[in-house]
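=== How it folds ===
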Amino acid sequence: MAKAKKNIYSPLQLRFLSETKGLEITGVTIDAVCKLVGHAEHGSYGGTGFLIHPRVVLTAGHIVAPISGYASSIDIVPGLYQNIAPFGKASSSNLWAPSNFLKNGTRNIDVGVIILPQSDIKIAPFSLSSANRNIDNYSFCGYVADRVTGDEFETREQVIRHGLSLNNSGTGSFLQFKSTMRGGQSGGPYFVERENERFCYAIHVSQQQGVSYGIKVNDKLIDKIGAIIDSLDN
């Protein structure tokens, strides 16, 4: 009996299938999306972040400050694919989150920044945009991090989703999507691709009852990020 052929799809075919059938896709890695492993008093944990500058990773606030204050350090691996780190690995304890998030865990400012040591990584970063009107479909990218035992995590490749539509009006502090994310994907970008550039509109922070929530990128956040980047470039 002839063996059944395994379906093998090109990146373009995978993109089409995901957009039209709502499938999760793997095997198509976005270099600027980073696997994160944080280290804190309570142990280690997984997350996702993404480069917006060669030395700046944007993520969720609860990734840089998981319980009571900042993590002791966070490992950053851009474009990790099947345990291969094509751009190497960095570690940083230079972290930032809004003061009100650090004090009160304020949910609608659950954003965080990791500042890397000197870096000459040649990766096209994400751009940030607060103009989310008239967008029908978003994409998302994040790493799944499942605890195996103790502080050990199973490393998986990126999961990318296309064709996500809003589940709310897009006003307020959150963009909501009728989609279920998984552990380790907090801090991943909701984005749109235009003319070979990726624009991030929200950062994944939570989910409940089949709805995923992303903190919206707003002008205040863009200004803060701009100030951080300016301080690095000076």
